[in-house]
Amino acid sequence: MKKFLSVLLCATLCVVLLFSGCGQQGTTGTTGGNTGTTTSTPKPSESSAPSGGNTNLPLGERPADGWTFGYTCMDGTNPFFVILEKTIREGVESRGDKLITTDPANDVTRQITQIEDMITQGIDAIFLNPAEAEGILPALDMLKEAGIPILNFDTEVADLSYCFSYVGSDNYNAGFVCGQDLVKKVPNGGKLIILNSPTMNSINDRERGFRDAIEGKGFDIVAVQDAKGNLEVAMGIAEDLLQAHSDVVAIFGGNDPTALGALAAANAAGLKDVLIYGVDGSPDIKKELASGNSLIEGTGAQSPINIAKISVEVMYKYLAGEKVDARYPVETFLITSENVNQYGIDSWQ
Asked: Is the pTM of this model over 0.85?
C-alpha cells in the first residue's frame, strides 16, 4: 500500500508540473479591464523574428496602416527647419506613413515633454534635432526604454550612442569658409564679434571652424555672446555690443537668423564698413547678397532639403534591416554676392 501511494503521489506531481510549464509559455494579461495576450515592441538591439520571418528588421514588419514617425526640432519657426520638416513629411507620406510634428520653440524641457507625449501616441521611430545637446538626454533615455529608434539630424546630441545614425551638414566647414573669406577680404585683421549659441553643437562646430580659419591673421575677438540662434535676440545683443565696439570690422553669426539680427543692429547704428557672415544659405540671406548694397558678406551654405531627403532614406533603410552608416555628412560651401545667382534667391539650395 505504501508503494502504491508513493507511485500515485509521483504521478500527481508530474501532472501538476506539466500543466504549470504549459501555462508559462502563453502569458496573458489584463490591462484596463481588457484581457488579451501581452506583447511588447522589440528594441533595436534585441533580436526579434517578425511574422514575415526576417530577423533583421528592428521593429518587425511594417504595420498594415503604416509606420508612425515622430519629428522634433529645436525651432519649428526657423525657415531652415520649416523646409526640412516639409521635405521629411513629403518623403514619409509619399510612402503611406504618418509624421507627428512638434515644436519646442528652443525649450528643451518642453521638447522632453513633447517627446514623452509622442511615445504615448505610439510612434515607431523618431527624427530628432535637439534644442540642447546635453539637456535632451532624459528624452533619449525614454525613447531607448520604449524601444524607439532615433535618427539624429542637423545638430548632434551629446551622446550619439543613443541614435542609429546622424545626418547633418559639415558644420565645421561652414564656419571655416566664412573665416577664409574674411581673411581674404580683410588681410590686415581687426576687431570682430561672434554671436554663437553654446547649447547647439552645430553652431559650436561652425564657430570652431571660423576661429581656426582666422587664427593668427590679426583678428581680435572683442565679444562673444549667446544669441540662441534667434533673430530678435541677436538684434538686441548686437545693438548693445555695437555701441561699445563700433569699430569692429566683422560679425560672425552662428546661423542666418543671427546674422540678420546683427544686420538690423548694424543698419540702425549707421555702420557702413562691417562685414557680416552667417551660416545656412537661406533665401532671406541670399536676397541680401543679391541686392548689392548689404552688409551681409557671405553665408556658409547648407541644404536642409538634402539633409531631409537623406534622413528619410536612412530611416527606411534602417527599418528594412539594411546596414546604415553612423554618420552621413552633407556638403557645405560659401555663398557670396559673386555666386549667389547660381543657387536661386527665392528658395533653398
From this structure: no
